[in-house]
User: Fold this.
Amino acid sequence: MLYESTTKLPPAEALARAEAFFAGEYGLDRQSRDAREAGFTGGGGHVIVRVVREDPTTLELETREWDVAVQSFLAQLPR
Assistant:
């Protein structure tokens, strides 16, 4: 599934929060991380968080098996 959302956070902070959320709270393994993308795997699925635009920061989240977690993450982002 593909999700998209905007946030007031700068891209680096949004990706740092994604890492804390998916790797920290959910225990997914970090597979990739750079200035525009962070990827996580585990539980038979994956989550990829991409910065697709700045000002405001627009995130695209691709997931398989982690839809509820992705929706929870998106709900906590400052708009």
In short: The helical segments are 11-25, 67-76.
